[in-house]
Design goal:
CATH architecture of the largest domain: Sandwich
Distance between the termini: 146 Å
Low-confidence stretches: none
Radius of gyration: 46 Å
Helix content: 25-40%
Order of helices and strands: HEEEEEEEEE
Strand order of the largest sheet: 4-3-7-8-9
CATH class of the largest domain: Mainly Beta
Number of helices: 1
């Protein structure tokens, strides 16, 4: 009779169980690592996206700030040029003697015409030139306006006999080459002309309106009333 081997089998069994358990732990560890890696990657991607968004915002802010500085610098240069051009518009007060017609008696008291002469010494054309006369507490219009064009600045060889300035309606624009504008009032008693002065307005090349009064130039807005 042969007796069955009574050697215990548990070591082999437990080895198999341990192997399975170890495999399970390894798989779990791998899965956990993968999950952690994915989460870390998402966090890193989110952080990177945030950093990129912040960098883009900083860049956009810097570009806007640079554009604003450039705009302000250009505006500053333009303002300086506008003021310089405005003060290159010369306004001169003058008088013109009155000579009564030979068939009329002389006036009861001395009279004269008030005259304003406007010359553009700037580099650009000025437009919509207007003038008013302040005299004896009132602001009134001049009676006549004469536009002396660039014709009068031509050298004599370009103005030979038989050539003359083209006629036309007086212009209220002044180019740098024009001689100027001359405004003449109606006949006024000389006593009323004491302290009189012209008020001249125009528009520059940038569309800004200006007013010259007693040697002082200022910016003005459309539609302002004329004041002494």
């Amino acid at each position: 009779m042969i007796l069955a081997d009574a050697t215990p089998q548990w070591p082999a069994d437990w080895t198999a169980v341990g192997t399975v358990a170890l495999a399970a732990v390894t798989v779990a560890a791998i899965i956990t690592t993968i999950v952690i890696t994915v989460q870390d990657r998402k966090r890193a991607d989110k952080q990177l996206a945030g950093e990129r968004a912040a960098a883009d915002k900083r860049l956009a802010d810097e570009i806007r700030a640079a554009d604003e500085r450039l705009r302000q610098e250009r505006q500053g240069y333009q303002d300086q040029e506008q003021w310089a051009e405005a003060y290159l518009v010369q306004v001169t007060r003058a008088r013109r003697s009155y000579y009564p017609p030979t068939n009329q008696p002389p006036p009861d008291e001395p009279v004269d015409h008030a005259v304003a002469i406007v010359v553009n010494h700037g580099r650009y054309t000025i437009t919509r030139v207007e003038a008013r006369l302040y005299a004896s507490g009132n602001v009134t219009s001049y009676k006549t306006t004469e536009h002396l064009s660039s014709w009068f600045n031509l050298p004599e060889p370009l103005r030979p006999q038989g050539i003359w300035e083209a006629e036309g309606a007086p212009s209220n624009n002044l180019t740098p080459m024009d001689l100027g504008l001359r405004y003449t009032s109606d006949v006024l008693a000389k006593r009323l002309l004491t302290g009189n002065y012209p008020i001249v307005r125009w528009t520059d090349r940038w569309g800004q309106q200006w007013e010259h009064k007693q040697g002082v130039v200022r910016k003005m807005t459309e539609g302002e009333e004329w004041h002494a």
